[in-house]
C-alpha cells in the first residue's frame, strides 16, 4: 500500500510518477524498497488518469444509494441511469483492482 501512497504523493504535488520518485519517498519513510514492485507500479500507472480514477472512486459510494420510490416512468429512467453508472463504476473498479493485484 505504501507504494500506491508514494505515487499519490507525487501526483498530488504535481510531480511525474517515476521509479526514482517513488524510491525516494519510500526510502525517506524508512521502507525497504522492492525494485520489482516500483517498476510494476510505474508501468501500471502509465496512461492512467489518476484524477479521473480518484473522482470515480469517491463518487461510487454515492451512486450506490438506493433510489426513493417513484412512478413507473421514473423508475424506468432511473434503472437506465443506474445501469450506465454501474458500467462506469465497473470500469473504475477494474482499474483499481488491477493496481491492487500488483501488491498481493
TrEMBL record:
<dbReference type="GO" id="GO:0006414">
    <property type="term" value="P:translational elongation"/>
</dbReference>
<dbReference type="GO" id="GO:0003735">
    <property type="term" value="F:structural constituent of ribosome"/>
</dbReference>
<feature type="compositionally biased region" description="Basic and acidic residues">
    <location>
        <begin position="72"/>
        <end position="91"/>
    </location>
</feature>
<comment type="similarity">
    <text>Belongs to the eukaryotic ribosomal protein P1/P2 family.</text>
</comment>
<comment type="subunit">
    <text>Part of the 50S ribosomal subunit. Homodimer, it forms part of the ribosomal stalk which helps the ribosome interact with GTP-bound translation factors. Forms a heptameric L10(L12)2(L12)2(L12)2 complex, where L10 forms an elongated spine to which the L12 dimers bind in a sequential fashion.</text>
</comment>
<dbReference type="InterPro" id="IPR027534">
    <property type="entry name" value="Ribosomal_P1/P2"/>
</dbReference>
<keyword id="KW-0687">Ribonucleoprotein</keyword>
<feature type="region of interest" description="Disordered">
    <location>
        <begin position="63"/>
        <end position="92"/>
    </location>
</feature>
<comment type="function">
    <text>Forms part of the ribosomal stalk, playing a central role in the interaction of the ribosome with GTP-bound translation factors.</text>
</comment>
<protein>
    <recommendedName>
        <fullName>Large ribosomal subunit protein P1</fullName>
    </recommendedName>
</protein>
<dbReference type="GO" id="GO:0005840">
    <property type="term" value="C:ribosome"/>
</dbReference>
<keyword id="KW-0689">Ribosomal protein</keyword>
<dbReference type="GO" id="GO:1990904">
    <property type="term" value="C:ribonucleoprotein complex"/>
</dbReference>
<dbReference type="InterPro" id="IPR038716">
    <property type="entry name" value="P1/P2_N_sf"/>
</dbReference>
<dbReference type="Pfam" id="PF00428">
    <property type="entry name" value="Ribosomal_60s"/>
</dbReference>
<dbReference type="InterPro" id="IPR022295">
    <property type="entry name" value="Ribosomal_P1_arc"/>
</dbReference>
Amino acid at each position: 500500500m505504501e507504494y500506491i501512497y508514494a505515487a499519490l504523493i507525487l501526483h498530488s504535488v504535481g510531480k511525474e510518477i517515476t521509479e526514482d520518485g517513488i524510491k525516494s519517498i519510500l526510502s525517506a519513510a524508512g521502507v525497504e524498497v522492492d525494485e520489482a514492485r516500483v517498476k510494476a507500479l510505474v508501468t501500471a500507472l502509465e496512461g492512467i488518469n489518476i484524477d479521473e480514477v480518484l473522482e470515480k472512486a469517491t463518487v461510487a459510494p454515492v451512486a450506490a444509494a438506493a433510489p426513493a420510490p417513484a412512478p413507473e416512468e421514473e423508475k424506468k429512467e432511473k434503472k437506465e441511469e443506474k445501469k450506465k453508472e454501474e458500467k462506469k463504476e465497473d470500469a473504475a473498479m477494474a482499474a483499481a483492482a488491477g493496481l491492487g493485484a500488483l501488491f498481493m
